[in-house]
Design goal:
single chain, 158 residues, alpha/beta, 5-stranded mixed sheet
Length: 158
């Protein structure tokens, strides 16, 4: 089971991904990186409320972020042929499409929602568990929380 999370410049239609993390629950393989928005023309939208949630400042992205094309190549190499789970399928799917379209590439993996691994009843249980977690809103921490909540539903529920 591989899970992914993205942080973004905001929630508006002109927002873009600024941090991506993924982890494989079985093997422990994982990766996390920031994306430099200056590597994509037109990626200028910034929501200060979103910055308050994730704590990532534009200067950090410029300093430590990788180029968008490198981000796509890195994801494609690591996740090729995999089904990758998101607990925010609509948002994460939107930002992944923006990323890949910005550099003219296609993902080598398939993004799926929680319904790919959890039944309707289990998704309700997941929501209860997720609400009790302290969401830190950095991508890798959110991936760890996602994996933990899915495991709790799948393996510890009656």
């Amino acid at each position: 089971m591989i899970c992914i999370d993205l942080e973004a410049s905001g929630l508006a239609s002109d927002s873009y991904p600024i941090e991506i993390a993924w982890a494989c629950a079985e093997t422990g393989r994982n990766d996390s990186f920031l994306i430099n928005p200056e590597s994509v023309p037109g990626w200028i939208y910034w929501d200060e409320f979103a910055e308050e949630l994730h704590g990532i400042e534009p200067e950090l992205l410029q300093q430590d972020g990788i180029d968008a094309d490198e981000a796509c190549r890195r994801l494609n190499k690591a996740l090729k042929g995999e089904e990758v789970i998101s607990d925010a399928f609509d948002y994460d799917g939107f930002w992944l499409r923006r990323l890949y379209q910005a550099v003219g590439m296609q993902p080598s993996f398939r993004l799926v929602g929680l319904d790919a691994v959890l039944s309707g009843e289990q998704r309700i249980q997941y929501q209860f568990i997720a609400r009790t977690q302290f969401r830190r809103h950095r991508a890798m921490r959110d991936v760890e929380d996602l994996i933990s909540a899915i495991r709790t539903v799948l393996y510890e529920s009656p």
